[in-house]
Specification:
The structure is a homodimer. Chain A is mostly helical. Helices cover about 55% and strands about 5% of the residues of chain A. A two-stranded antiparallel sheet of chain A has the order 1-2. The radius of gyration of chain A is 17 Å and the shape is elongated. Chain A has a domain at about 5-85 and about 125-135: Arc Repressor Mutant, subunit A (Orthogonal Bundle), CATH 1.10.10.10. In chain A, helix 1 runs antiparallel to helix 4 (about 75-90). In chain A, about 35% of the residues are buried. Chain A contains six helices and two strands; from the N terminus they run H-H-H-E-E-H-H-H. The interface between A and B is large, with 39 and 39 residues. The first copy, chain A, binds a DNA duplex through helix 3.
DNA sequence: CATATAAAAGATAAAAATGTCTTTTAATAT
DNA sequence: ATATTAAAAGACATTTTTATCTTTTATATG
């Protein structure tokens, strides 16, 4: 469904959302354990997310990765698209170039609104909202 | 979403469903073009599907791959699971081992019924039904 | 300023997925 | 029987994804 990279990235960002802010930062190697992702791999992913404004970071002593309130407004789809490309989730089930509503491939109706609804959720839901759910006891950690 | 192998396999089986029967068979190399999949790759995939009773085949002159009426009753999920494994489609969005309805991960509700509905469709829909849709002008080729 | 710290960037390695080629086996037709 | 055909099986090559390691750059602190 999602690549490992996308899953790792979502877990990393979620961890940062729950455990950091402008003042309190965490180093890549300290995220690794709690989210169960290899340290140098999560570092790479967070750096990539940093370049695109999804996470924040500061170098040097007491530096590390963190999320600003602004960062937390990132919609989930942005993280997924950054790592998997838009194509993976949004393309036709059979990767047919000219499959669309008017000229649907044999699997198109089957997937139907299901997929578009799903993608809309990912576009409309932000990291902040996921955090709120956790705090409201609607969903659970650990990652 | 699906691996290339799964997409290729679905296209191959769909092509067989539309163009073959016990009497009329096609060779791997003649499927390749119409469905736009490398010849030796589709051959491998069809052999694998053959081992699991999804397609039929006969060796030698006038041999080739084909689908029996029985074969056409195969649900789509079988083809997908064979190539991608059940895990890919059915596991939690974050691949968390103990995510379930009672202990949902942060993405669980978001995906919600959408995913289970989708999987149910794949379980309940057969190749034969897709063929019927095409014949009824509800969906379109080419692959 | 010098030093230590931690991210950024780059290079390299390992594993998995995709794709191709060759040999073997089974069926057909002459 | 023999030759031909086409799938089955296996070996091999390429590409992509995942993972690790090393060097560089920026920042804070003494």
């Amino acid at each position: 469904m999602l690549s490992k990279s996308a899953k790792y990235a979502l877990k990393g960002v979620l961890y940062l959302a729950m455990n950091t802010n402008e003042q309190k930062r965490v180093m890549a190697k300290d995220i690794s354990g709690p989210i169960n992702v290899p340290p140098s791999y999560i570092a790479k992913l967070l750096q990539q997310l940093g370049r695109h404004g999804v996470v924040s970071s500061i170098k040097g002593p007491h530096g590390g990765f963190f999320l600003t309130e602004e960062n937390k407004k990132t919609p989930l789809i942005k993280i997924i698209d950054l790592l998997d490309g838009e194509y993976r989730l949004k393309s036709c089930m059979l990767s047919l170039k000219d499959c669309n509503e008017l000229n649907p491939c044999p699997l198109h109706r089957l997937v139907g609104n299901v997929k578009s609804d799903f993608i809309r959720s990912l576009e409309q839901t932000t990291i902040a909202e996921l955090v709120q759910d956790i705090k409201d006891g609607k969903s659970f950690l650990p990652l």
